[in-house]
Amino acid sequence: MSDPRKYQFNLPKKGRPSRIGLEEEWYPEIHKYYGKCTSKRIYHPINGIRAVVIHATAGGSSVGAASVIKAGRASFHWLVPDEDEPQHGHFVWATAPEKLAAWHVRNSTSHPDVFDGHNKVNHFSLGIEVVNTQKSSDEFSDWQIQTTARIVRYCWAKYPNLKHVVSHAKLDPRRRKDPGTNFPWQDFKKLVLVGDEDPVPKLVSIATPASQIKETDFHGNCTG
Ligand SMILES: [Zn+2]
């Protein structure tokens, strides 16, 4: 069985995509909240980005994941919807501005394989949360993996010093296991490195207004 605490690969110098589009929509009203749980980066917001951290929510819904931001407890840059959500197959949620450090990894944690062991990972990284309960029966969908890979390719094209793609579990192995054993890390790595040149389907406007999203039970979030 794959061990999420070992999930990492580094982006090669050759093969950087030139420009990658991303189908994203701002999560409804999230701009009212992310200011409480993001920081000004201590590194340059473009040249200082070294890593993308892959998370899974440990909850079953985008609403649950976004509630953590609304509570001001933690944050991340993108949220990849689950199969049973209407956005699945269409677009990802943007949940914090890339230029700000989101709070998705504890400041004290670090790993020698990631930016020479610097801590304060949030300041040199971007965070992606994939909605998944982290139960053994909950498989990630192909679209979730393809889309997570696409976000990484988008970042690779945009950030010249981006090198590390790493799991939260590797950075904080005592506390975190996400994105979990079901996350097909090797398939994901291939999708990032080789790319999926199929055109992204045109954005269909199906975003559910926040007022119509039903609060579902939420079992906590991996972040922070
Ligand atoms: Zn996490």
Explain the layout of strands and helices.
Blueprint: E1 8-10, E2 24-26, E3 38-40, E4 51-56, H1 62-70, E5 78-80, E6 92-94, E7 100-102, E8 125-130, H2 142-158, E9 164-167, H3 168-171, H4 185-194
Helix pairs in contact: 2-4
Description:
- The chain is an alpha/beta fold and 224 residues long.
- The protein has a single domain (4-11, 29-197), classed as Lysozyme-like.
- Helix content is 18%, strand content 15%.
- It is built from four helices and nine strands.
- A seven-stranded mixed sheet has the order 1-9-4-8-5-6-2, with helices on both faces. The protein has a two-stranded antiparallel ribbon with strand order 3-7.
- Helix 2 (142-158) packs across helix 4 (185-194).
- The chain is globular.
- The structure holds zinc ion.
- The site of zinc ion (ZN) has 6 residues, from loops.
- Zinc ion is lined by residues 55, 168, 176, 178, 222-223.
Low-confidence stretches: 200-220
Q: In the CATH classification, which architecture applies? A: 3-Layer(aba) Sandwich
CATH superfamily: Peptidoglycan recognition protein-like
Number of domains: 1
Structural class: alpha/beta
For the secondary structure, the number of strands is 9
How far apart the termini lie comes to 26 Å
Major β-sheet annotation: 7 strands, mixed
Instruction: Tell me what portion of residues adopts beta-strand conformation.
Output: 15-25%
CATH class: Alpha Beta
Fraction of helical residues: 10-25%
CATH topology: Lysozyme-like
Bound molecules: zinc ion
